[in-house]
Records
---
Amino acid sequence: MINIWEVKETNAMIEQENLDVRTITLGISLLDCIDSDLERLKENIYQKITTVAKDLAAVGEEIENEFAIPIVNKRISVTPIALVGGAACKTTEDFAQIADTLDAAAKAVGVNLIGGYSALVSKGMTKADELLIRSIPTALCRTERVCSSVNLASSKTGINMDAVRLMGEILLEVAEQSKDRDSVDCMKLVVFCNAPDDNPFMAGAFHGVTEADAVINIGVSGPGVVKTALEKVRGESFEVLCETIKKTAFKVTRVGQLVAQEASRMLGIPFGIIDLSLAPTPAIGDSVADILCEIGLEYAGAPGTTAALALLNDQVKKGGVMASSYVGGLSGAFIPVSEDQGMIDSVRAGAITLEKLEAMTCVCSVGLDMIAIPGDTSAASISGIIADEMALGMVNQKTTAARLIPVIGKGVGDTVEFGGLFGYAPIMPVNPFSCEGFISRNGRIPAPIHSFKN
Amino acid sequence: MEKSADKTIITVVGKDTVGIIAKVCTYLAENQINVLDISQTIVQGYFNMMMIADMAAAAKPFGECSKELEELGEEIGVSIKCQREEIFQKMHRI
């Protein structure tokens, strides 16, 4: 029988260490909504989302009440819209109207974000893919809850450099269109290499074509829980350190598994995966960077950071894998700058640079995340940063991503406020030297030699 | 063995005072909630109690009991929390 100390431990995690379920994300396939008539397509999409997800918010709240565990976000991901809208959309405005429909559906069912305004172009772009990408600035700036992602590369296909070049320009356009709000709409846009089909986390969530009609994916969290556990083993060996992280990750993930099962049962929708990512928030004590400091670094970014993060990421996975029947999504430690107070402190102290963050993304999920850069950064330089990140993912057969925010009208030393869970970020310097000649080449970078495994 | 879905863990934490257990148990009795186990300890001057209760025959749904117990806690000056047992089982048992 459960004893009082175990109950106290669990409740301390929830009440003092910010243990929560970060998101219940309901993936919905829109493939059966496809129609060549735009109005009918929009109607089908609205109907499907509002029918399948009608109980999502209520079920989330009921689970929160029964277990007293906060579920921070209830979200929806849909089939990449470039695939769904291809037959009906002939202009960028047509695609943007689908974004309006998604936004309206999200509001109707009470979810705070809806992902899947996406295109998968790792090898080439169809007409529809390109139209969707070109519609992203309009779509993101006139909707509130729609998130967009573009898969630009994969280990199997290489890097679509035409799309990488285009995304540099598109990102600047998004920044320009929301410049009166510190270019915040950029945080709803992420580019990927090896994007997973079942990622529950925004902005990159979409419902892959390999998925069933509807599926529940869960993102757990708990950097604060890991940090607190590590405080008790200061100065101990790596073995003790690793064991402690594993045990903690196990406990955190089991809560996610329970919530996933309950949500699945109550909604009558199958459970997909649990994403084991340690997802920080700007709340004090909910920071991945603080874990790195607890492992023994003065600041995240100090020498040893990449090794410490590799260790953390691996132990989280090893502990989490046993706690859940299905693990997927991004599953690793997130190192967003703006959403992590410890990271912000590192930037402020000059301890961490864009280049060090890039190195860190080699050993963790997911990539350069929520990084504010000067608004006068050129499209080519942005594409260059994206290409570097894509190359890391491609060669290392892992998911990598970039979510950069070029803040128009602001430069290094300024700070941008994103609000709520998205936090704030000091603007980081970008290497000033040009990559124009590299980015202006046409075509794609071929897949690496070790992708030929057949 | 009873269905674990009906088992609820009620935790009471706060400054020790006369009649905490009595008041909580009175509420439970009035609402046909059977207490299976009680353990109690004082940590740093604070009263900590955990009850395992069976809500299979409860007069009201879980959410309502949970809310009323929370209100009762506010009256006594302690924090009362109801949680289904599975969250602890999952976390602490393989």
Note: The interface with chain B takes residues 1-4, 6-11, 62, 65-69, 251, 254-255, 257-258 of chain A (CB under 8 Å).
---
Amino acid sequence: MSLTGIRTSVIRTPGGLSVNYRPRALLVGAGCVVLALVAAVFAIGSGEYPMAPGEVIRTLLGQGDPADAFIVNELRLPRTVTALLVGAGLGLCGAVFQAVVRNPLGSPDILGFTNGAACGALLVIFAAGGGSALLAGGAVAGAVVTGSLIYALAWKRGMHGYRLVLVGVGATAILTGVNSYLITRAGITEASRAVLWMTGSLDGRGWDDVLPLALGMVVLVPLVLLGCGRALRMMEMGDDAAYALGVRVERTRLALLGTGVLLVALSAAAAGPVSFVALTAPQLARRLTRTPGPNLLPSLCMGAALLICADLVAQRAFGERQLPVGVITGVVGGGYLVWLLASERRAGRI
Amino acid sequence: MRGPDASYTQPEVLYAHNTGGDTMRTATGDTATDHKEPASGDAAQAAGEPRLTGHGLTLAYDQRTIAAELDVAVPDQSFTVVVGPNACGKSTLLRALSRMLKPAKGQVLLDGGDIAGLPAKALARTLGLLPQSSTAPDGITVADLVARGRYPHQGLLRQWSRDDERVVAESMAATGVEGLGDRFVDELSGGQRQRVWIAMALAQQTPLLLLDEPTTYLDIAHQIEILDLCARLHEEEGRTLVAVLHDLNHAARYATHLIAMRDGRIVAQGEPGEVVTAELVEEVFGMPCRVIDDPETGTPLVVPAARR
């Protein structure tokens, strides 16, 4: 019997194994990866000592001269890798949260997790001065505490998206206040460092900033994509429908929230609470793939592309004056949010 | 019925599509796997116990008790319909039978074993439930939605077998949506959409299928269309169906076994011809009426008494 309308393609092995893929989603993901890599090469090539893209690539492949190699590998590459990883992490966890909450507003910035991570990190900066590992630890602790509180407050016979969003908005407001208070209590040097960090900045990132995030992602990304991705797709149809199909709904949701919170926290520790990437990346990816489902992989690739491009703009578009990347994502993302609300309103959904 | 796919390693409750009394029973597949399939219920079967039963069920949301001490049995190969006024606990009972609600007291037995102990996917291969409200994801095609019914038969490395493809095509044919495969679900009419959801539940290939108010929000012609479809699935494929229905006359016409509930109690169960009487309807719905023979089918037809 022929079957039309199946939008997925399948690879089958003679052994009876089969793997689904969505051609359009793969294409979008690949496009984003290419864009991200091109932007990365330009980002590495830019700065006080400009390098041509060809030279950057040669140096990356280990064929440049030692001075170039030092500039690329030690000074500029860590920043670029941080941007790519943070973007990827935020894109993925944005897609996870939006799917779990079933609401395009369900991104970690709005749910309060990002501010929770910031709160933990600020405490570490002020109490211990903060190295990367300590900062990561503080951010994770802050996000996990916030996440547990929000989950406990919003959880009642399953979790309803709107309740979670509303509780999250409340938590964000409280934490913003707490964070501002912490900054006013700090000395002037610490405070200005903290403010820069709070905007989301990639300046001066070294390999030790990359390490906690990279290690975390090696574990968390496969866990989300392979461990929960298919169950999450079923949960789109509602908890009952997913349960009837054999998804352990509550367990899956808890696992996803847990991994999502860790991803947000590690990203925030590496680059500060960069705003709006988690909100916009999944929505852009979904519109490009035109594929139902949480679009986890395309969102991840889209996040990486968005953040590296934003960083490139922040570094180069304003002449001598460099901006923290969070300013760019905030302006672009805020504009996008307004557009989203306006268009959803026209469509009668909000 | 199934292709002899040697690579097919997962156990499955086989389901014969021909009709024929007791041979319609299930047989379990390969049992040497990590999943414990519900046994085909040899012991229970010998004792004449139906596959799905509830014993001493007390059902509650938080502290609010909906129903207490329910004993219920779903006869095998029946089209069982649960009726009763709003908020009588009929949907709650269905949720308990499908393990979606954990009973505060009592237990639900599937093939003689407590349903609470079954692995999620194993349960979903034996017992399906079509919830009252499900959301079709934005921009999903009919075929893609029906294909999701195969989830409990799939795994990380077995995402779309030829078996899956065949069963999805068959399910779409059985519900008359085979021509709609590449249409978007959100552009279908209510009746078509409900048939698509039923096709998804069929693709799950469960011998037991529970439907929570499958005709709600449909106009009368589509209600009858869906009920005719259910009756056909029940008769031709021998599936055991359990549906919660609002309309007593629909229940009386289509059910082979009727469970009437009121205020969390089961007032009567049995064949509609025996159960549906004027006294019972008055007791359950609090509405005076006459019961006559349906001129089309000879089943009981409830005619509300005229205003005096």
Note: Chain A has a mean pLDDT of 88.
